[in-house]
């Protein structure tokens, strides 16, 4: 299916953000795990973060780091994940003030 979902929770004091995610990468096997990000302090999710994800929450299986850019578009957010300067994933999400929930997909970038 090439789609995923993620829930972020941000610590407004430190700017750190945690993630819980799931992804179906066209293999009919859904994988998932956790993630940890650093960014700027404040309650707003909009901003730039450095994030690493872990399959099944295992620190021995890191995927990243990614540069995550979250833009507030008014009543929703757009999300873009970059690795080594290349767009890898894109998504759209909404916040209830406490969590940011987003759907995302792998992005094919042609050179």
Topology:
Layout: E1 3-10, E2 17-24, E3 30-38, E4 47-55, E5 62-72, E6 77-83, E7 86-95, E8 99-106
Antiparallel strand pairs: 1-2, 1-8, 2-3, 3-4, 4-5, 5-6, 6-7, 7-8
Walkthrough of the structure:
The protein has 111 residues and is an all-beta fold. It has an eight-stranded antiparallel β-barrel with strand order 1-2-3-4-5-6-7-8. 23% of the residues are buried. The mean pLDDT is 91.
Which spans of ≥5 residues are poorly predicted at pLDDT below 50? none
Strand element count? 8
What oligomeric assembly is this protein in? Answer: single chain
Count of DSSP helices? 0
- How is the main sheet built? 8 strands, antiparallel, barrel
Our Rg estimate from Cα atoms comes to: 13 Å
Query: What percent strand?
Result: over 45%
In percent, how helical is the residue content?
under 10%
| Structural class by helix and strand composition | mainly beta
What overall geometry do the principal axes of the alpha carbons give?
globular
How many domains make up the 3D coordinates? 1
Instruction: Record the strand order, biggest sheet.
Output: 1-2-3-4-5-6-7-8
Beginning-to-end CA distance, first to last residue? 24 Å
What is the N-to-C order of secondary-structure elements (H for helix, E for strand)?
A: EEEEEEEE
Q: For the residues shown, what is the average pLDDT?
A: 91
Quick summary:
The protein has 111 residues and is an all-beta fold. It has strands spanning 3-10, 17-24, 30-38, 47-55, 62-72, 77-83, 86-95, 99-106.
Can you tag this structure with a few keywords?
63% strand; eight-stranded antiparallel β-barrel; mainly beta; 0% helix; 111 residues
């Amino acid at each position: 299916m090439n789609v995923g979902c993620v829930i972020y929770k941000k610590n407004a004091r430190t700017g750190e953000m945690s993630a819980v995610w799931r992804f179906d990468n066209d293999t009919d096997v859904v994988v998932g795990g956790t993630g940890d990000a650093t960014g700027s302090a404040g309650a707003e999710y909009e901003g730039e973060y450095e994030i690493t994800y872990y399959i099944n929450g295992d620190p021995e299986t890191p995927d990243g780091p990614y540069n995550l850019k979250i833009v507030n578009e008014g009543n929703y957010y757009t999300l873009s994940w970059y690795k080594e300067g290349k767009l890898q994933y894109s998504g759209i999400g909404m916040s209830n003030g406490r969590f940011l929930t987003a759907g995302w997909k792998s992005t094919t970038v042609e050179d």
